[in-house]
């Protein structure tokens, strides 16, 4: 006769006594040990924190970061603007009589 039972780790029931004392020490987070001494936690009340500290300098920092990126972005911006203005001029030309004739010559 085979007696098959799940092991204690598989059925997740607390069955192990605390280090041979015969008393269960508890599950994770509440192990039943005495409270720690000498641990000090410091915090600041949310009412004492300065949420907008340093915001008066924010526009200047933004401008500084923008000017640092200017050599990287300037070629792409100039290329985009030049393509846009070329397209606008070409479009305006094709709306004229001479442009319509030239466009008709391209299509035929």
Helix content: 40-55%
Q: Which class do the helix and strand fractions yield?
A: mainly alpha
Note the run of SSEs as H and E.
HHH
- What's the total helix number? 3
Short description:
The chain is mostly helical and 108 residues long. It has three helices and no strands.
What can you tell me about this protein's structure?
The protein has helices at residues 8-11, 58-94, 97-107. With 108 residues, it is mainly α. The longest helix has 37 residues, at 58-94. The N and C termini lie far apart (95 Å).
What labels would you give this structure?
108 residues; 3 helices; mainly alpha; 0% strand
What is the fold's blueprint, element by element?
Layout: H1 8-11, H2 58-94, H3 97-107
């Amino acid at each position: 006769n085979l007696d098959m039972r799940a092991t204690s780790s598989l059925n997740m029931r607390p069955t192990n006594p605390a280090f041979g004392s015969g008393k269960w020490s508890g599950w994770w987070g509440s192990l039943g040990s005495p409270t720690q001494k000498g641990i000090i936690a410091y915090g600041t009340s949310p009412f004492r924190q300065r949420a907008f500290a340093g915001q008066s300098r924010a526009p200047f920092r933004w401008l500084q970061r923008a000017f640092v990126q200017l050599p990287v972005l300037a070629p792409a911006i100039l290329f985009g603007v030049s393509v846009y203005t070329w397209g606008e001029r070409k479009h305006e030309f094709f709306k004229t009589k001479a442009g319509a004739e030239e466009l008709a010559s391209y299509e035929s």
